[in-house]
Design goal:
nine-stranded mixed β-sheet, alpha+beta, 383 residues, T-fold, single chain
């Protein structure tokens, strides 16, 4: 059994249209992280974040924190005290909703099968279930016991038997989660015996938009939030140009690490792919994106899915769900929901198949470009 691990944090900086790779060894963070956290960091931090420093107007302040099992970087043109407040808000969400903390609201729910969620948990639960329903269960917040059995939550990887998976998926079903909402501030959640809930598939997307809104309310006009590869842009760069955010290449043989670049402002950009977290056994690769209907890694023909939109939580949830659906299913879903329908905020897509075909939706076709390494790939625009 072999785990693919990268022990450095890669930042790709765009300058005069050239890519520079910089290895930044974070010794303090490495010393603080357990093995599982390092494995998580190894797969998410490779997602390139394009950070261009500049000397326009207010000082650009940055903060790097470790939360939600990953390194996060916040960059704003504004008061550095806001970064401290943002860090506290991120850790508050983590403490409240972490599936691995027995004293969290989700920890209590999984242990006692009933719990009351406060404001953030209520908002996340409501929208997460909407996404689960809209995607027909391709996203399912109750798949956590299956992920645990594969070892993706602990690092103790193994391939479960078909009989074991059959027993596990019998308890999977977002429609078995019963929620009694008491306004927008709280809700009571009840689940069946044998079930466990994890909001990890959407919580970083929610957190990115939540922190971006906090910064905007405090007057921040320019900023970049990177929560372990979940990128949220505030405005433009301080010089007025759009942020240039890379989509990581999902292919092992990539030389640059970047497949393409999106010019972005005031938007979330979130990617899911089998390359993020996986293990190999007997020559076969198993990744962490599980098809809730089979209990096995989703093999849909897609190598990565990037979702771009105003709502980071929708982008986060859909990046997983559409990977499970495959290109045809994702295209049909986009045509039904892409403009913003039935509680699903408007979004665009960049999808890459295992045979290296690239599909982009019309809303980002003009702002997305392939890097020089992949300039010969065919791009199909979905309208």
């Amino acid at each position: 059994m072999k785990l693919s691990i990268l022990l450095f944090f890669i930042v790709i900086v765009y300058s005069k249209n050239e890519i520079y790779l910089k290895r930044m060894v974070e010794k303090d963070y490495m010393n603080r992280m357990n093995v599982t956290a390092i494995r998580t960091l190894a797969t998410v931090c490779i997602l390139p974040l394009f950070i261009t420093g500049c000397g326009f107007g207010k000082k650009v302040n940055t903060s790097t924190i470790f939360a939600m099992d990953t390194i996060m970087q916040l960059e704003i043109q504004g008061d550095d005290k806001l970064l401290t407040e943002a860090g506290e808000k991120i850790r508050d969400i983590e403490d409240t909703l972490s599936v691995t903390r027995e004293d969290s609201e989700i920890g209590k729910l999984n242990r006692e099968k009933s719990a009351t969620l406060t404001m953030n948990g209520t908002k996340i639960m409501k929208k997460a279930l909407q996404i689960c329903d809209a995607t027909g269960g391709s996203l399912d917040i109750s798949v956590y016991p299956v992920l645990k059995t594969w070892g993706f939550t602990t690092g103790d990887y193994r391939v479960p038997s078909d009989d074991e998976l059959k027993e596990l998926i019998a308890n999977v079903g977002y429609d078995k989660v019963h929620v009694d909402y008491t306004g927008d501030e709280a809700c009571k959640v009840t689940i069946e015996d044998g079930m466990q809930i994890d909001l990890g598939s959407v919580v970083k997307g929610y957190t990115g938009s939540y922190i971006a809104d906090f910064f905007r309310e405090k007057g921040v006009k320019s900023g970049l939030i990177n929560l372990g590869g979940n990128v949220e842009c505030i405005g433009t760069k301080p010089d007025g140009n759009p942020w240039r955010v890379a989509i990581k290449s999902p292919f092992d043989d990539s030389k640059s690490g970047a497949l393409g670049v999106i010019d972005a402002s005031d938007i979330a950009i979130i990617t899911s792919g089998g390359y993020e977290r996986f293990f190999e056994e007997n020559g076969e690769r198993y990744w962490h994106i599980i098809d809730p209907k089979t209990g096995k890694p989703a093999r849909s023909g897609l190598a990565s899915v990037t979702v771009i939109g105003k709502d980071g939580m929708v982008c986060d949830g859909l990046s997983t769900a559409l990977f499970v659906m495959g290109e045809k299913g994702a295209e049909a879903f986009y045509k039904k929901y892409g403009k913003g329908e039935n509680g699903i905020a408007a979004f665009d897509l960049v999808m890459v198949t295992e045979d290296r075909a690239v599909y982009v939706t019309e809303g980002v076709s003009a702002s997305f470009t392939l890097t020089s390494e992949y300039e010969d790939l065919k791009i199909t625009v979905i309208k």
